[in-house]
């Protein structure tokens, strides 16, 4: 039984590969250097030759608020092509199981919290990342359509905000948690007295260490088989302000935190309802504080020492 993980060098794909190897599974990983998933012909040929029994789609064009706002065409078009090419190729190659990984941004901006799976398509999306969200919603619908038309045992998982080793720490296009780690480490190393962060600090989010997600993906690939997608999250929320304070304390930054309120906040509150996942018998193991310490240590190990 060969498992294919698309997006092997990204935050999610690399963690899933680590988890599969730890579990003794036979897994093959690919990234854009191995196979351009935007190339439909080459994608079909690769999947047909490999004939995996399970494909885990962790490949995507991703980025933070700034990148999503500035490049909506790229986020919509590329993600639609990646997931459609991979799913269509899997169908032709008769791949038994397909796990599509979406994003919690699929839910309406002002949906009732915590976000239940039934909230999908019940209201207006957050404008700053609506292109990416629409692409992921289309992926969910394609999975459901393949189940309906061909009876495939394919599923969709919607992870919360993720962080951990191999995250993107580029301040121009990263997500909030790795960006905060980078900012506070840089500030400490340069002995800055203040750190200026985007927005008001009031939005609420839940975060999950990517190694917990890896375990959840493997669990769901074996135990979950429903037409509707399932949320993967911690069920715990924290304000961006409190997250910043936690990270600054872990890093050892003792200066002042200032907020640039002219910058976008994004969705005011976003925490996933994980009761369905809990009913299946899975819960995360890594606390936010321990997970951030692990991520900071990993970042340091890559040559960015905290002075």
UniProtKB/TrEMBL annotation:
Residues 3-233 form the NAD-dependent epimerase/dehydratase domain. The keyword DNA repair does not apply. SUPFAM superfamilies: NAD(P)-binding Rossmann-fold domains. It holds the Pfam family Epimerase. Keywords: Isomerase, NADP, Oxidoreductase. Belongs to the NAD(P)-dependent epimerase/dehydratase family. Fucose synthase subfamily. This is Unannotated protein. It comes from freshwater metagenome.
